Target: Lytic murein transglycosylase
Amino acid sequence: MQHIRLLLLVGLLALQADAQTLDQPLGAEQFQACVQDLSQVTDSALRPLKRDDFLRIAADAHYDDRVRQSMQVAAGEPTYWWDELAATTDAQRVADGQRVIAQNADVLNRIEARFGVPKEIVVAIYGIETNYGPAGGRIPVLDAAMSLACLRPCPPDTGQPGKPATCRSRERAFAAVRLLRDNKVRRDDFVGSWAAAFGRTQFVPDTLEQVGVDFDGDGVVDVVGSDADAWASTANHLKTRGGWIAGAPVWIEVSIPPDQQAAFAGKGDSIRQQDQIKPLSAWAAQGWRGFGPNGESVPLQRAGDPEVYPFLPVGLPGPAFLVTRNFNTILRYNGAERYVMEVSLLAHKIAGGRDFWTPWPTDDPGLSRAQVKQFQQWLVDQGHADVVPDGVQGRKTRDAIAAEFEKRGLPPQRRVGQRTMAMLMSPP
Ligand SMILES: [Ca+2]
Model:
Protein backbone atom coordinates (compact mmCIF):
# COMPACT_ATOMS: atom_id res chain seq x y z
CA MET A 1 0.00 0.00 0.00
CA GLN A 2 1.93 2.92 -1.27
CA HIS A 3 -0.06 5.51 0.64
CA ILE A 4 1.03 3.96 3.91
CA ARG A 5 4.61 4.55 3.05
CA LEU A 6 3.81 8.13 2.17
CA LEU A 7 3.01 8.81 5.80
CA LEU A 8 6.47 7.80 6.89
CA LEU A 9 8.09 10.18 4.51
CA VAL A 10 5.92 13.07 5.63
CA GLY A 11 7.68 12.86 8.95
CA LEU A 12 10.99 12.59 7.22
CA LEU A 13 10.27 15.68 5.16
CA ALA A 14 9.33 17.67 8.22
CA LEU A 15 12.63 16.80 9.86
CA GLN A 16 14.59 17.94 6.86
CA ALA A 17 13.08 21.30 6.07
CA ASP A 18 16.58 22.65 5.58
CA ALA A 19 17.64 20.02 3.05
CA GLN A 20 17.44 20.62 -0.68
CA THR A 21 13.99 21.22 -2.11
CA LEU A 22 12.19 18.51 -4.01
CA ASP A 23 11.16 20.85 -6.84
CA GLN A 24 13.71 19.54 -9.33
CA PRO A 25 14.82 16.04 -10.27
CA LEU A 26 18.38 15.13 -9.39
CA GLY A 27 20.65 15.45 -12.42
CA ALA A 28 22.84 12.55 -13.54
CA GLU A 29 25.94 14.37 -12.30
CA GLN A 30 24.41 15.08 -8.92
CA PHE A 31 23.43 11.44 -8.56
CA GLN A 32 26.91 10.22 -9.46
CA ALA A 33 28.46 12.71 -7.06
CA CYS A 34 26.15 11.42 -4.38
CA VAL A 35 27.19 7.82 -5.08
CA GLN A 36 30.82 8.89 -4.69
CA ASP A 37 30.01 10.70 -1.43
CA LEU A 38 28.25 7.62 -0.09
CA SER A 39 31.23 5.46 -1.04
CA GLN A 40 33.38 7.53 1.35
CA VAL A 41 31.31 6.58 4.37
CA THR A 42 30.54 2.89 3.88
CA ASP A 43 32.63 2.29 7.01
CA SER A 44 30.05 4.10 9.06
CA ALA A 45 27.39 1.57 8.13
CA LEU A 46 26.02 -0.66 10.87
CA ARG A 47 27.35 -3.73 9.09
CA PRO A 48 30.53 -4.20 7.06
CA LEU A 49 30.60 -2.90 3.51
CA LYS A 50 33.75 -2.45 1.48
CA ARG A 51 34.00 0.65 -0.64
CA ASP A 52 34.83 -1.38 -3.76
CA ASP A 53 31.82 -3.64 -3.27
CA PHE A 54 29.61 -0.63 -2.81
CA LEU A 55 30.87 1.09 -5.97
CA ARG A 56 30.64 -2.10 -8.04
CA ILE A 57 27.02 -2.74 -7.12
CA ALA A 58 25.97 0.92 -7.00
CA ALA A 59 27.22 1.23 -10.59
CA ASP A 60 23.98 -0.54 -11.58
CA ALA A 61 21.80 1.91 -9.66
CA HIS A 62 19.75 4.53 -11.46
CA TYR A 63 18.16 7.64 -10.11
CA ASP A 64 14.39 7.13 -10.25
CA ASP A 65 12.37 10.34 -10.22
CA ARG A 66 9.21 8.52 -9.13
CA VAL A 67 10.76 8.55 -5.65
CA ARG A 68 10.92 12.36 -5.59
CA GLN A 69 7.44 12.71 -7.09
CA SER A 70 6.00 10.36 -4.47
CA MET A 71 7.69 12.36 -1.71
CA GLN A 72 6.03 15.50 -3.08
CA VAL A 73 2.59 13.86 -3.19
CA ALA A 74 3.14 12.65 0.37
CA ALA A 75 3.77 16.19 1.49
CA GLY A 76 0.86 17.66 -0.41
CA GLU A 77 -2.42 15.80 -0.04
CA PRO A 78 -4.11 15.43 3.36
CA THR A 79 -6.37 12.42 3.88
CA TYR A 80 -8.95 11.52 6.49
CA TRP A 81 -8.92 8.70 9.02
CA TRP A 82 -12.42 7.61 8.02
CA ASP A 83 -11.52 7.38 4.34
CA GLU A 84 -8.35 5.40 4.94
CA LEU A 85 -9.87 2.96 7.44
CA ALA A 86 -13.00 2.40 5.33
CA ALA A 87 -10.88 1.42 2.32
CA THR A 88 -8.15 -0.53 4.10
CA THR A 89 -10.54 -2.60 6.24
CA ASP A 90 -13.43 -2.99 3.79
CA ALA A 91 -15.49 -6.18 3.57
CA GLN A 92 -13.44 -7.56 0.70
CA ARG A 93 -10.13 -7.19 2.52
CA VAL A 94 -11.64 -8.82 5.63
CA ALA A 95 -12.96 -11.77 3.59
CA ASP A 96 -9.63 -12.13 1.77
CA GLY A 97 -7.79 -12.18 5.11
CA GLN A 98 -10.09 -14.85 6.49
CA ARG A 99 -9.44 -16.92 3.38
CA VAL A 100 -5.64 -16.56 3.76
CA ILE A 101 -5.92 -17.81 7.34
CA ALA A 102 -8.17 -20.72 6.38
CA GLN A 103 -5.81 -21.81 3.61
CA ASN A 104 -2.60 -21.46 5.65
CA ALA A 105 -3.78 -22.43 9.11
CA ASP A 106 -0.87 -24.77 9.81
CA VAL A 107 2.00 -22.43 9.06
CA LEU A 108 0.25 -19.43 10.62
CA ASN A 109 -0.49 -21.35 13.81
CA ARG A 110 3.15 -22.40 14.03
CA ILE A 111 4.28 -18.79 13.55
CA GLU A 112 1.83 -17.65 16.24
CA ALA A 113 3.11 -20.33 18.62
CA ARG A 114 6.76 -19.43 18.05
CA PHE A 115 6.55 -15.62 18.19
CA GLY A 116 3.42 -15.05 20.27
CA VAL A 117 1.93 -12.68 17.69
CA PRO A 118 -1.69 -13.40 16.68
CA LYS A 119 -2.03 -14.72 13.14
CA GLU A 120 -4.70 -12.09 12.47
CA ILE A 121 -2.14 -9.32 13.10
CA VAL A 122 0.45 -10.93 10.79
CA VAL A 123 -2.12 -11.49 8.06
CA ALA A 124 -3.53 -7.97 8.50
CA ILE A 125 -0.05 -6.53 7.89
CA TYR A 126 0.14 -8.68 4.76
CA GLY A 127 -3.29 -7.36 3.71
CA ILE A 128 -2.45 -3.71 4.34
CA GLU A 129 1.01 -3.82 2.81
CA THR A 130 0.33 -5.69 -0.42
CA ASN A 131 -3.37 -6.61 -0.35
CA TYR A 132 -2.29 -10.25 0.26
CA GLY A 133 -0.32 -10.21 -2.95
CA PRO A 134 3.16 -11.47 -3.59
CA ALA A 135 4.59 -8.03 -4.23
CA GLY A 136 3.90 -4.34 -4.19
CA GLY A 137 5.44 -1.63 -6.31
CA ARG A 138 7.51 -1.66 -9.45
CA ILE A 139 10.67 0.29 -8.66
CA PRO A 140 13.98 -1.58 -8.30
CA VAL A 141 14.80 -1.47 -4.58
CA LEU A 142 18.42 -0.51 -5.23
CA ASP A 143 17.28 2.46 -7.33
CA ALA A 144 14.69 3.55 -4.77
CA ALA A 145 17.09 3.24 -1.85
CA MET A 146 19.89 5.12 -3.64
CA SER A 147 17.50 7.81 -4.88
CA LEU A 148 16.12 8.35 -1.37
CA ALA A 149 19.61 8.53 0.10
CA CYS A 150 20.61 11.12 -2.52
CA LEU A 151 17.44 13.20 -2.40
CA ARG A 152 17.76 13.50 1.37
CA PRO A 153 21.44 13.06 2.18
CA CYS A 154 22.67 12.37 5.68
CA PRO A 155 24.54 15.45 6.94
CA PRO A 156 28.30 14.87 6.56
CA ASP A 157 29.10 15.61 10.20
CA THR A 158 26.77 12.93 11.55
CA GLY A 159 28.47 9.57 11.79
CA GLN A 160 25.77 7.88 13.79
CA PRO A 161 23.30 5.88 11.72
CA GLY A 162 19.65 6.51 12.38
CA LYS A 163 20.09 10.10 13.53
CA PRO A 164 18.77 12.15 11.88
CA ALA A 165 16.17 10.25 9.88
CA THR A 166 17.95 10.90 6.58
CA CYS A 167 20.88 8.84 7.81
CA ARG A 168 18.51 5.89 7.99
CA SER A 169 17.99 6.34 4.24
CA ARG A 170 21.73 6.01 3.83
CA GLU A 171 21.84 2.85 5.91
CA ARG A 172 18.94 1.52 3.84
CA ALA A 173 20.92 2.06 0.65
CA PHE A 174 23.95 0.27 2.13
CA ALA A 175 21.72 -2.62 3.24
CA ALA A 176 20.23 -2.89 -0.26
CA VAL A 177 23.77 -3.16 -1.64
CA ARG A 178 24.70 -5.84 0.89
CA LEU A 179 21.63 -7.94 0.07
CA LEU A 180 22.73 -7.94 -3.57
CA ARG A 181 26.40 -8.50 -2.67
CA ASP A 182 25.49 -11.55 -0.59
CA ASN A 183 23.01 -12.90 -3.15
CA LYS A 184 20.28 -12.80 -0.50
CA VAL A 185 17.82 -11.48 -3.06
CA ARG A 186 17.35 -12.24 -6.71
CA ARG A 187 17.87 -9.08 -8.72
CA ASP A 188 14.65 -9.67 -10.68
CA ASP A 189 12.69 -10.00 -7.43
CA PHE A 190 14.29 -6.98 -5.82
CA VAL A 191 11.51 -4.60 -6.82
CA GLY A 192 9.24 -2.65 -4.52
CA SER A 193 7.84 0.71 -3.49
CA TRP A 194 9.41 4.13 -3.92
CA ALA A 195 10.38 3.94 -0.24
CA ALA A 196 12.46 0.80 -1.00
CA ALA A 197 10.03 -1.59 0.72
CA PHE A 198 9.68 -4.97 -0.97
CA GLY A 199 8.31 -8.46 -0.55
CA ARG A 200 5.03 -9.80 0.75
CA THR A 201 5.02 -7.72 3.91
CA GLN A 202 7.07 -4.82 2.52
CA PHE A 203 10.35 -4.96 4.35
CA VAL A 204 13.00 -2.32 3.83
CA PRO A 205 16.49 -3.79 3.32
CA ASP A 206 18.02 -2.64 6.61
CA THR A 207 15.15 -4.09 8.63
CA LEU A 208 15.19 -7.37 6.73
CA GLU A 209 18.90 -7.80 7.49
CA GLN A 210 18.10 -7.60 11.18
CA VAL A 211 14.88 -9.58 11.58
CA GLY A 212 14.58 -11.87 8.54
CA VAL A 213 13.59 -15.47 9.33
CA ASP A 214 13.94 -18.56 7.13
CA PHE A 215 10.77 -20.23 8.36
CA ASP A 216 10.25 -22.72 5.54
CA GLY A 217 13.75 -24.07 6.16
CA ASP A 218 15.20 -23.91 2.66
CA GLY A 219 18.23 -21.97 3.90
CA VAL A 220 17.25 -18.62 2.37
CA VAL A 221 15.31 -15.71 3.83
CA ASP A 222 12.92 -15.08 0.96
CA VAL A 223 10.25 -12.48 1.70
CA VAL A 224 9.37 -12.27 -1.99
CA GLY A 225 8.74 -15.90 -2.89
CA SER A 226 7.86 -17.46 0.48
CA ASP A 227 4.75 -16.63 2.48
CA ALA A 228 6.16 -18.47 5.49
CA ASP A 229 9.40 -16.47 5.48
CA ALA A 230 7.58 -13.15 5.00
CA TRP A 231 5.04 -13.81 7.77
CA ALA A 232 7.62 -15.18 10.21
CA SER A 233 9.93 -12.22 9.56
CA THR A 234 7.04 -9.86 10.28
CA ALA A 235 6.17 -11.71 13.50
CA ASN A 236 9.84 -11.72 14.47
CA HIS A 237 10.01 -7.96 13.93
CA LEU A 238 7.02 -7.43 16.21
CA LYS A 239 8.42 -9.76 18.86
CA THR A 240 12.11 -8.88 18.94
CA ARG A 241 12.13 -5.24 17.92
CA GLY A 242 8.87 -4.10 19.37
CA GLY A 243 8.49 -6.47 22.31
CA TRP A 244 5.04 -7.77 21.43
CA ILE A 245 3.07 -8.69 24.56
CA ALA A 246 1.40 -12.04 23.87
CA GLY A 247 -2.24 -12.10 24.85
CA ALA A 248 -2.67 -8.32 25.11
CA PRO A 249 -4.93 -6.42 22.70
CA VAL A 250 -3.67 -3.43 20.70
CA TRP A 251 -6.50 -1.15 21.81
CA ILE A 252 -9.73 -1.12 23.75
CA GLU A 253 -12.41 1.28 22.57
CA VAL A 254 -13.64 3.38 25.49
CA SER A 255 -16.03 6.11 26.47
CA ILE A 256 -14.54 8.90 28.56
CA PRO A 257 -16.59 10.27 31.48
CA PRO A 258 -18.05 13.68 30.55
CA ASP A 259 -16.23 15.44 33.38
CA GLN A 260 -12.87 14.27 31.96
CA GLN A 261 -13.50 15.05 28.30
CA ALA A 262 -12.30 18.65 28.27
CA ALA A 263 -8.67 17.50 28.12
CA PHE A 264 -9.35 15.73 24.80
CA ALA A 265 -11.45 18.27 22.92
CA GLY A 266 -9.26 18.80 19.88
CA LYS A 267 -9.12 20.44 16.51
CA GLY A 268 -9.01 17.12 14.70
CA ASP A 269 -5.39 16.31 15.54
CA SER A 270 -4.51 13.02 17.17
CA ILE A 271 -3.97 12.98 20.92
CA ARG A 272 -1.69 10.24 22.26
CA GLN A 273 -0.73 10.42 25.92
CA GLN A 274 2.04 7.89 26.42
CA ASP A 275 3.06 9.53 29.66
CA GLN A 276 -0.34 8.65 31.14
CA ILE A 277 0.24 4.88 30.95
CA LYS A 278 -1.26 2.95 33.88
CA PRO A 279 -3.14 -0.31 34.54
CA LEU A 280 -6.52 -0.65 32.86
CA SER A 281 -8.10 -1.06 36.31
CA ALA A 282 -6.92 2.46 37.21
CA TRP A 283 -8.83 3.90 34.24
CA ALA A 284 -11.86 1.84 35.22
CA ALA A 285 -11.65 3.29 38.73
CA GLN A 286 -11.65 6.75 37.16
CA GLY A 287 -14.99 5.95 35.51
CA TRP A 288 -13.76 5.10 32.00
CA ARG A 289 -15.95 2.42 30.39
CA GLY A 290 -15.79 0.02 27.48
CA PHE A 291 -18.27 -1.35 24.94
CA GLY A 292 -19.98 -4.72 25.14
CA PRO A 293 -20.85 -7.10 22.29
CA ASN A 294 -23.86 -4.99 21.33
CA GLY A 295 -22.34 -1.59 21.90
CA GLU A 296 -23.64 -1.35 25.45
CA SER A 297 -21.54 0.42 28.08
CA VAL A 298 -19.61 -2.10 30.19
CA PRO A 299 -16.90 -1.94 32.88
CA LEU A 300 -13.30 -2.01 31.63
CA GLN A 301 -11.68 -5.33 32.47
CA ARG A 302 -9.08 -7.54 30.77
CA ALA A 303 -7.09 -10.58 31.79
CA GLY A 304 -3.70 -9.53 33.11
CA ASP A 305 -4.83 -5.90 33.66
CA PRO A 306 -2.57 -4.51 30.90
CA GLU A 307 -1.00 -1.06 31.13
CA VAL A 308 -2.72 1.32 28.75
CA TYR A 309 -2.79 4.98 27.80
CA PRO A 310 -5.28 7.22 25.93
CA PHE A 311 -5.23 7.57 22.15
CA LEU A 312 -7.79 9.69 20.31
CA PRO A 313 -7.09 9.70 16.56
CA VAL A 314 -8.96 12.96 15.91
CA GLY A 315 -9.65 14.21 19.45
CA LEU A 316 -13.24 14.59 20.65
CA PRO A 317 -15.77 14.07 19.25
CA GLY A 318 -14.55 10.81 17.70
CA PRO A 319 -13.55 7.27 18.65
CA ALA A 320 -11.43 7.02 21.81
CA PHE A 321 -9.12 4.22 22.85
CA LEU A 322 -6.91 2.97 25.61
CA VAL A 323 -3.93 1.38 23.86
CA THR A 324 -1.38 -1.14 25.12
CA ARG A 325 2.34 -1.31 24.41
CA ASN A 326 1.41 -3.45 21.41
CA PHE A 327 0.28 -0.21 19.76
CA ASN A 328 3.86 1.06 20.03
CA THR A 329 5.12 -2.29 18.78
CA ILE A 330 3.23 -1.95 15.50
CA LEU A 331 4.33 1.68 15.39
CA ARG A 332 7.90 0.42 15.19
CA TYR A 333 6.96 -1.57 12.10
CA ASN A 334 5.64 1.58 10.44
CA GLY A 335 5.80 4.89 12.22
CA ALA A 336 2.29 6.12 11.39
CA GLU A 337 -0.51 6.01 13.98
CA ARG A 338 -2.98 5.49 11.16
CA TYR A 339 -1.08 2.43 9.97
CA VAL A 340 -1.31 0.91 13.46
CA MET A 341 -5.08 1.40 13.51
CA GLU A 342 -5.49 0.06 9.96
CA VAL A 343 -3.61 -3.13 10.83
CA SER A 344 -5.27 -3.63 14.20
CA LEU A 345 -8.79 -2.87 13.01
CA LEU A 346 -8.36 -5.20 10.03
CA ALA A 347 -7.06 -7.92 12.38
CA HIS A 348 -10.02 -7.29 14.70
CA LYS A 349 -12.47 -7.68 11.81
CA ILE A 350 -10.71 -10.76 10.41
CA ALA A 351 -11.17 -12.29 13.87
CA GLY A 352 -14.90 -11.55 13.68
CA GLY A 353 -14.99 -8.08 15.26
CA ARG A 354 -16.67 -5.00 13.84
CA ASP A 355 -16.01 -1.33 13.21
CA PHE A 356 -15.60 1.08 16.12
CA TRP A 357 -18.82 1.82 18.02
CA THR A 358 -18.19 5.57 18.16
CA PRO A 359 -18.78 7.32 14.83
CA TRP A 360 -16.15 9.54 13.22
CA PRO A 361 -17.00 13.25 13.32
CA THR A 362 -18.22 13.46 9.73
CA ASP A 363 -21.55 13.42 7.88
CA ASP A 364 -19.79 11.86 4.89
CA PRO A 365 -18.22 8.54 5.95
CA GLY A 366 -15.57 6.79 3.89
CA LEU A 367 -16.00 4.37 0.99
CA SER A 368 -14.99 0.78 0.40
CA ARG A 369 -12.60 0.15 -2.49
CA ALA A 370 -15.49 -1.34 -4.45
CA GLN A 371 -17.43 1.90 -4.01
CA VAL A 372 -14.43 4.00 -5.00
CA LYS A 373 -14.07 1.88 -8.16
CA GLN A 374 -17.75 2.35 -8.94
CA PHE A 375 -17.39 6.10 -8.48
CA GLN A 376 -14.21 6.20 -10.56
CA GLN A 377 -16.03 4.43 -13.38
CA TRP A 378 -18.71 7.11 -13.14
CA LEU A 379 -15.97 9.77 -13.38
CA VAL A 380 -14.65 8.06 -16.51
CA ASP A 381 -18.18 8.09 -17.92
CA GLN A 382 -18.35 11.84 -17.23
CA GLY A 383 -15.32 12.31 -19.50
CA HIS A 384 -12.44 12.13 -17.02
CA ALA A 385 -10.56 9.76 -19.26
CA ASP A 386 -7.34 9.66 -17.23
CA VAL A 387 -9.06 8.31 -14.10
CA VAL A 388 -8.24 4.63 -13.58
CA PRO A 389 -10.87 2.65 -11.63
CA ASP A 390 -8.39 1.12 -9.17
CA GLY A 391 -10.24 1.75 -5.90
CA VAL A 392 -7.78 4.40 -4.70
CA GLN A 393 -8.59 8.11 -4.51
CA GLY A 394 -5.26 9.20 -5.96
CA ARG A 395 -4.28 12.47 -7.54
CA LYS A 396 -6.06 12.04 -10.90
CA THR A 397 -9.25 10.92 -9.18
CA ARG A 398 -9.00 13.88 -6.82
CA ASP A 399 -8.51 16.29 -9.69
CA ALA A 400 -11.63 14.86 -11.37
CA ILE A 401 -13.62 15.10 -8.12
CA ALA A 402 -12.63 18.75 -7.75
CA ALA A 403 -13.78 19.39 -11.34
CA GLU A 404 -17.16 17.73 -10.67
CA PHE A 405 -17.74 19.81 -7.54
CA GLU A 406 -16.86 22.93 -9.50
CA LYS A 407 -19.23 21.91 -12.31
CA ARG A 408 -22.07 21.78 -9.75
CA GLY A 409 -21.14 25.19 -8.38
CA LEU A 410 -20.22 23.62 -5.02
CA PRO A 411 -17.37 24.58 -2.73
CA PRO A 412 -14.17 22.82 -3.82
CA GLN A 413 -13.56 19.36 -2.39
CA ARG A 414 -11.02 16.73 -3.40
CA ARG A 415 -12.51 13.53 -1.90
CA VAL A 416 -15.89 11.86 -1.79
CA GLY A 417 -17.56 9.79 0.91
CA GLN A 418 -20.90 8.00 1.17
CA ARG A 419 -23.00 11.16 1.04
CA THR A 420 -21.10 13.14 -1.60
CA MET A 421 -20.70 10.10 -3.87
CA ALA A 422 -24.48 9.61 -3.92
CA MET A 423 -25.04 13.35 -4.36
CA LEU A 424 -22.68 13.70 -7.34
CA MET A 425 -23.96 10.54 -9.04
CA SER A 426 -27.60 11.67 -8.88
CA PRO A 427 -28.80 14.12 -11.54
CA PRO A 428 -28.41 17.79 -10.51
CA1 LIG B 1 13.14 -19.74 3.25
